[in-house]
Design a protein that fits this description.
Blueprint (H helix, E strand, L loop, with lengths): L1 E3 L1 E3 L2 E3 L4 E5 L6 E6 L3 H20 L2 H17 L1 H12 L3 H22 L5 E4 L8 E9 L2 E5 L7 H12 L3 E5 L5 H13 L7 E3 L4 H10 L5 E5 L2 H10 L4 E5 L4 E5 L5 H13 L9 E6 L1 H16 L18 H16 L3 E4 L3 E2 L2 E2 L2 E4 L16 E6 L3 H10 L2 E2 L1 E5 L3 H8 L6 E4 L12 E2 L1 E2 L2 E2 L1 E2 L1 H7 L1 E9 L1
Length: 471
């Protein structure tokens, strides 16, 4: 059984208390991580604060060289990281390795982008203030709390940690419970890389027991969180004086406006809806399509869904077990509610514990829960809507506003519809997706707060400091 310890001040912490992590595929214990106490967590913040000023005073290029050692440890251990991830969250082994490799690319890009965060130099002459020159530089905010989700436990962790560290912040990192093995494994990499003491600390434990302690410490200058709407809104309430970047849920719609390339539309929709068993905030979670197009599009979608493989992540099946049985129960509840109200199950609606077959539901109406609630599982509802105006209205009525897709070969029509959809990003003729990672990534409404992306993360984790020379 894998056993990984928390990391505080570059020391592995074994307080004799452990949190077991369950393998979603076998429902057996995959490993255990340290279950920290409040005193342990407060110590992590204390050492992060003590180390921050010295770390920020290290020149940027030297900070990058230090962090490159950590990056190189990731590359040396990428197969092991992928294996842990596959066991811990039931993500296909090939997809897990791709996540690690993508993360290395993000780290490399971040190092280069950090070199281009140049100071802003200004004179006051435009306001009639002569003999003034101002230099406004980006400086670290201080101590950053980074909280990652279970579904991308490596990528979305390092996409927070590296920008924070490279700009001179120190980090307290809390992985999601499912994802803690991958998160705590980073402690070994940090020690092997000989990171300076206190700049990177990993705290693990039961969220329901230590969540408030982790997010309310007065040493925190910024919280970067990816996870559920409920926890995100709780952080909003607690962190009123703390800078926040929140990436929460989504109910991403796909609007199909014509029938000119239905094969491509169907491929994009299925890939967008069922990738990693639908456990993605950017997954396509509802299709809005006119009746006359639906009758031609749906058979294409159905055939592609039925071609998806179901099984083990070690065999790289398209559909693997969702993260736990509680999640499976919630997803099944959405399916059952739709059936009870007259929706038609085209394929799927089969389950073995928390392994759920990909389900496609036709004739979904706005009265059904699955039209509005985020399943975070392999379920796709189809709503037949003949009016483009009504499609836009339904898309915008959601509490979420992360992404959307518009499928249409007339680019003018597609752009005009996209401009009316209230989400952070609209994809034309493509599935909703997070990348490329150099693009800004954001959500509105209950989908988030602030902006991520490589450059945007560097900016969000810094503030301006102005020095004005009067001569």
């Amino acid at each position: 059984m894998r056993t990984y310890k928390a990391l505080i001040n570059n020391q592995l912490i074994d307080n004799g208390q452990w949190l077991e992590i369950i393998n979603p595929t076998t429902l057996e214990v995959a490993g255990k991580v340290t279950a920290l106490t409040a005193d342990d967590i407060n110590k992590a913040y204390s050492v992060a604060r003590s180390a921050q000023q010295n770390w920020e005073e290290v020149e940027l290029l030297q900070r990058i060289e230090v962090l490159k050692r950590f990056r190189n440890e990731i590359e040396k251990n990428k197969e092991e990281i992928a294996q842990i991830m596959s066991e811990e969250i039931a993500k296909g082994l090939k997809e897990s390795l791709a996540e690690v490799e993508r993360t290395i690319e993000i780290i490399d890009y971040t190092f280069e982008e950090a070199k281009r965060i140049d100071p802003l130099a200004m004179t006051g002459e435009g306001m009639g203030a002569k003999n003034k020159i101002g230099v406004f530089s980006r400086v670290a905010k201080g101590v950053v709390l980074a909280i990652s989700p279970f579904n991308y436990p490596f990528n979305l962790a390092l996409a927070k940690i590296i920008p924070a560290l490279v700009m001179g912040n120190t980090v307290v990192f809390k992985p999601a419970t499912a994802g803690s093995l991958v998160g705590a494994f980073m402690a070994n990499l940090a020690i092997n890389a000989d990171l300076p003491k206190g700049i990177f600390n990993i705290v693990t434990g039961r969220g329901r027991e230590v969540g408030d302690i982790i997010t309310s410490n007065p040493e925190i200058n910024m919280i970067s969180f990816t996870g559920s709407v409920g926890v995100g809104n709780q952080i909003r309430k607690m962190g009123s004086s703390t800078d926040l970047v929140l990436e929460l849920g989504g109910k991403d719609p796909a609007l199909v406006l014509d029938d000119l390339n239905l094969e491509k539309y169907a491929s994009e929709i299925v890939a967008g809806a069922y990738g990693y068993s639908g456990q993605r905030c950017t997954a396509i979670k509802r299709v809005l399509v006119p009746n006359k197009i639906a009758d031609k599009l749906i058979p294409l979608i159905k055939a592609k869904v039925e071609a998806l493989t179901v099984g083990s992540p070690q065999e790289n099946a398209n559909i693997t077990a969702v993260i736990d049985e509680k999640s499976a129960d919630f997803i099944q509840g959405l399916i059952d509610d739709a059936k009870a109200q007259g929706a038609v199950i085209l394929t799927g609606d089969k389950r073995e514990k928390n392994l759920m077959w990909p389900t496609l539901i036709d004739n979904v109406t706005v009265d059904m829960r699955v039209a509005w609630e985020e399943p975070f599982g392999p379920v796709l509802p189809i709503l037949r809507i003949d009016s483009v105006e009504e499609m836009i209205e339904i898309a915008n009525k959601s509490q979420f506003g992360l992404q959307a897709s518009v499928f249409c070969q007339d680019i003018s029509t597609a752009i005009n519809v996209a401009k009316k959809i209230q989400t952070g990003t609209i994809n034309i003729n493509s599935k909703s997706q997070r990348g490329p990672d150099c693009f800004p990534f954001l959500g509105i409404k209950d989908s988030g707060e602030g902006v991520q992306g490589i450059r945007e993360s560097l900016l969000s984790m810094t503030r301006y400091r102005g020095i004005v020379v009067n001569y």
